[in-house]
Amino acid sequence: MRNDLAPFFKPNHIAIVGVTRSESSFGGLSFLQKFQESNFPGTLYCINPKATEIRGLPVYPNLSSLPLVPDLAIVCVPAAHVPTVLEECGRIGLRYIHILTSGFSEIGTDQGRQLEEQIASIAKEKGLLIIGPNCMGPYCPASGLTAWGAIPGAPGPLSVISQSGSITQRLTEYAYFLGIGTDKAVSVGNGTVLDTFDFLEFMGQDENIRVIALYIENMKDGRRFFDLAREISKSKPIIAWKGGKTEVGARTASSHTGGLAGEQVIWEAAFQQAGVIQVNSLDEWMDAVLAFALLSPPSNPGVFLIGGGGGSSVVNSDTCIHEGLDVPSPSFATMKKLRETVPIAGSIAGNPLDDWQTYVSSDYLGTILDLVCADPAMGMVIVSRMIARKAFHMYSQPDSIPAIIEQVKRRNHQKPVVFVVDSEGGDPDLAAQGASIRQEFGKGRIPAYPSIKRAARALMHLYRYHNRLNRIKRRSL
Amino acid sequence: MRNDLAPFFKPNHIAIVGVTRSESSFGGLSFLQKFQESNFPGTLYCINPKATEIRGLPVYPNLSSLPLVPDLAIVCVPAAHVPTVLEECGRIGLRYIHILTSGFSEIGTDQGRQLEEQIASIAKEKGLLIIGPNCMGPYCPASGLTAWGAIPGAPGPLSVISQSGSITQRLTEYAYFLGIGTDKAVSVGNGTVLDTFDFLEFMGQDENIRVIALYIENMKDGRRFFDLAREISKSKPIIAWKGGKTEVGARTASSHTGGLAGEQVIWEAAFQQAGVIQVNSLDEWMDAVLAFALLSPPSNPGVFLIGGGGGSSVVNSDTCIHEGLDVPSPSFATMKKLRETVPIAGSIAGNPLDDWQTYVSSDYLGTILDLVCADPAMGMVIVSRMIARKAFHMYSQPDSIPAIIEQVKRRNHQKPVVFVVDSEGGDPDLAAQGASIRQEFGKGRIPAYPSIKRAARALMHLYRYHNRLNRIKRRSL
Fold it and tell me: pTM of the predicted model, to two decimals?
């Protein structure tokens, strides 16, 4: 198994090869600036034969003139000069290299393809480990390696392996805001030397990582992916978003990362057989990450719905069923207890439960959760919490989120309990309020989703993954 | 055709029958309070035999003691007393009645059903027009009839006919925040006397209404719905959300509005044949309303995608195709012009167009829109605008939304041009900023959606509706 990639994520000395002085361009200088802003704890070396000082740091004319051999080189020089830099890396024994530069096979020219072949052959000859070209490279908040993104990020159970830098950045930021940190992420670009599979193999055996999120457009070796994914998904979930599923998407993918995206049906079948969770949007990806990072396995697909409003109960049931879950009738014993507990006026006892008291008292909500979690037909619970507005003549304010979080934690039901805080409605204040509440739940280690649909789909992914694992375990007994 | 329902939406004198003094309960008092807060311009009469003054208004013991016959009675007394009130309405010639009270067939008891039958027979005998029971009744911002909701609302092209008060409230508020006002809305509840179809017939011929949104759980006469919907949808779109599509949803619906929800497949086929646009969530409903209220008909399903980022271009293409649109290759002439216009460095000319210049200059964006709208293969355009963050080393700020709106208006392409402002990512500030920008676009009469998926689905509904109409027109020539 691949175990030589760890140094990419914990460099003490980084050389940035090709730091220009122009403030406006994307490249070596912007990486340097980000590292400085995020207080990278190691040493940064700038390489530029035409400068002596940039942003307060001494500048070296080339890698050979550095006082030591850095742990990592970030190569930002124009494509045509990349081979020369790699030759130099080989000479000084610098093996870990990230090539940011684009202009290789993805631009579709002969020259681009030839340059990329040169990268591959130099790497082979000199034993270089290369991420890229045409990508954002490694990311690791615990090491201060956070040159991407608008936020510093935080360590946590997530790993992201991706063929798109911007999509990776969005997922790591999204997860961060919901209280889920990232252990390691990598944007692999064209994957000329090290590709998605190398990092999948490496991260699959990394004990700090509990959830692997994958964005993939193409692969060279389907069999290797299948074998790897099947093995890894037995111990940790791989949540994959495949770009270029459609013909047009595939055409676009070839000008993005230079590869062929392949047949959708083959991918889907391979993913399914290997136990890979398939998603189709950033939201669905994040929702699944949140569920897998925070929830215990559901024993069955039955969901108990606690919500407000008659119409909402109807459409929420429809949505859960549509997403592949069940909304089972409570057992006789549960119904008896519900009828004894739920007030007759203004509420409807059953599943869905339309009961406004769950909204105004967290302690009462806790009692209801105890009651329904005791029913074996209920594998999980979704609690829908509308945000209180001066709407529908509702004067009472809901109780506080910390009190609800405390109730859910304390009662510790060993069944997934998630919340829905729907704040869509065009109102910027409501949007911000909803996002804040969902963030508060996430930081309290309870998933909160913006819609029933998104909650139901995330729970469905969670259920199917564990159900498959259980079947495998039973078969192997 | 039904033309006697207009007085429900323009009452000058409203009697609220059953105004209690208890501040906390939902009912007559909360309606009175809402009317007072929203400065209802007509006169409000409170009926309560045990009080003389409530909230500064004189209270009358019964309808017969009022100085005049009101235009509308809102009946809020307990279910068992409703028949007596209706008899009195009949005696004084008060024909327009909204029954707020619940506790009829929807609670599933014999007494409930009998009371509802009494309502029907008194209405028949006395010629009463009744909305309800068990509902929020009529809503019309132009008449100050806005007793529901957290906001006053505004007049506009939308009509909502619904079996759920809370769902209606959410749609009208949502539309309001995006700059789409409501002409008339009605929550029909159990529909004992006047049902969904009566209001569909009435609103279908109302010239102020350009888009009809329908939330329906059950119907008594499928044939009538089909004939009505087929006729109305020739001149205005009916966007329908069917609650109780699944068996569990249908079971829930019967305890919500007392009816049977029926078979999903039959509904779907009937909707399709009648030209009704079918949606399955509040968001999809709103997205379609926005498209139909603001956009001209697309001539074909080809969409030109203007966006940012290689990975995004790949998955955005996938999403549009998945939603039923095409992402056609530009014509030879268009490609030639794109290559002459789009900068080579950092951009990819084609469809999708990955071109950062569209992001920093509204004038340049206008040029690109001219260029691609001239291509007959492009039936519509989606412009994806990420919100600028200090991410990905992007230092330049995007230009202002008013400048973009002005460009789109001025160039007047006669093809749907919509924006995507995706602000999902867990960050409350970003969520608020995204909602504000979408609101600004909406108020500028340009739809802006929170995701490519939602934009693509709304455009697909728009295209399919007009494509069907065109086929009908061609057949009838």
Answer: 0.93
